Amino acid sequence: xxxxxxxxxxxxxxxxxxxxxxxxxxxxxxxxxxxxxxxxxxxxxxxxxxxxxxxxxxxxxxxxxxxxxxxxxxxxxxxxxxxxxxxxxxxxxxxxxxxxxxxxxxxxxxxxxxxxxxxxxxxxxxxxxxxxxxxxxx
Length: 138
Fold this sequence. Notes:
Elements: E1 2-8, H1 11-23, E2 29-34, H2 43-53, E3 60-64, H3 70-76, E4 84-88, H4 92-100, H5 109-120
Parallel strand pairs: 1-2, 1-3, 3-4
């Protein structure tokens, strides 16, 4: 499995930096930071290069930051490519699980949907689950 992650700004390279710290080898992940001021390329060019370097039989995941955003709109143009799935709403938890599964070229659509659902469970409001007693000493 190969993963192409593209986001608005430097989110993609930031996620890759975090993954490199947490997981070490992220060779299955290609990132592209879109719409930077000094950028001379575009999402399409980088996605085309990703497809050119990835065998047609290999499972390919194209991941963007925002559903319906401009990066996602560019990636949707690849939806009919063989062995290709497109995911919007990139997050670190999801990518950790996907990269951990990188050697498994047999992930199904249902497997990927379960990984997405599981990663949603990592987004939570953090609060204390106990009350602090406030007894007066006087």
